[in-house]
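User: Is it possible to get a 3D structure for a protein together with its bound compound? The compound here is copper (II) ion. I've pasted both below.
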Amino acid sequence: MTQQSSRRRFLKAAAATGALAGLNATVLAQGQNEEIILLGGYTRAWQGYRLPGGQEATDGGNPTLTLQRGTTYTLMWQNGDGVGHNFAIQDSQGENLQVLEPLTVQSDVFEQINGTGGNESVSLDISNGNVTGVGTGGGGNATGNQTGGQQSTESLVSETEIIAEQGAVQGVRFTATSEMAQYICLVHPNTMVGDVEVQSGGGTDNSSG
Ligand SMILES: [Cu+2]
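Assistant: Yes, that's possible. Here is the predicted structure of the complex:
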């Protein structure tokens, strides 16, 4: 506990001084409630485990992801059938959008989040592209220190690596834009594809001035 919080302080201090360029984007996620999406990757269809905005996860595959424009989402998916899958978000022309910040996620972190209620708030510790820990409930630790910095597009990818190990988890962070139309596994574009619906109705939260 003590170790973790001192480490957080270190990261915050480092970000504040700009001493560690490139770390800013990852530090931003610390201590704030995340919009988290959890999916299962199966050849027959994506399965919705935790959907944005408290939408009910249904048994049907390929759930529509309803997003708020300008909101940043952390999407994690677990390989369910040991077949190679990857993840991309496309526009209405079927072009992959280069908007994904890849994250490394351990399976136990995924399981932990998946065990929380869909309405329960979850915060993530993300460091150097690794999701290292999860906090649930409360949310009293918001520090108001979100600088809202735009991450460099150099680190963004238009599709993720294919992972084939059953149980393996992959994560991406992205900010919803109105051009997003669908999410897809490029290995199985006919069965693993679902709609993305982006709402623009003032849903952005810029509360920390
Ligand atoms: Cu696939």
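Residues 43, 85, 185, 187-188, 192 surround copper (II) ion (CB under 6 Å). Helices lie at 2-17, 24-27, 107-114.
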